């Protein structure tokens, strides 16, 4: 079965081309894709050849994982539903994670259309008036939700999110919805402004101030730190401000530099959380949060490209000082 896809042919080389996908089986849903959302952090590390699987960094001698069709999130319309799938019917607007593909380094794919997807990885979207595009990044939104839902929250306690990217924004939104007083530390003024104007976090501009010094001066005792970018150095500067029985959520990709000295956590009885991946219950809650409006996705979309121009999207994403935050590929242009 023929499809089109965004293929990483080699390091730092993306192309839009025809590919082969399997014929659908009884457990599959075929989706005519409308939008897919680029996961800049994860996909960039594959694009640069920094890792060979989800959490495994590339080491000299490893086979390069190319060609591959990266990505893991998209929305569209179900056009065919296998006989064993009961929760989706043809014509439903749906969200899907990874789909099946042939002839690539990995047998799963993200940015592909039509998308032949196991029914367990397909969600019917709520009929509540929220635009379909709002759900296009739901796996990544779920990562932020997962970060923000892990630690217990006492109403009004201070939570610091390290990183002003998408995961940081959604972690901050989740913590705010649960009653925390959230600070978001980052280096991009326009992203920090999104959080402040959205009403879910106070900004800490790390280009202008040391977030730890700023909070120390304000007398803030921190109950939760969520690291979305893999900056253990920033956590260590914040750690003296953390109260007894506080929480560290570590979600940033650390490669081979992720050593945490547990003994240094023990004195404050800091609980370490290490969220990863997605599960059906968390996806269900994330989609519900988008439908209810407390998980905000559309304000974070900064760029949209026809899927056929994905190479241009990657030029933008990898440019020094890129303004890209939420990047959407449009498949029906």
From TrEMBL:
InterPro entries: ADH-like_C (IPR013149), GroES-like_sf (IPR011032), NAD(P)-bd_dom_sf (IPR036291), Zn_alcohol_dh (IPR050129). Transmembrane segments: none annotated. GO terms for molecular function: oxidoreductase activity. Gene3D superfamilies: Medium-chain alcohol dehydrogenases, catalytic domain, NAD(P)-binding Rossmann-like Domain. Residues 167-274 form the Alcohol dehydrogenase-like C-terminal domain. The keyword Oxidoreductase applies. It comes from the Bacteria. Keywords: Oxidoreductase. PANTHER family: L-THREONINE 3-DEHYDROGENASE. This is Zinc-binding dehydrogenase.
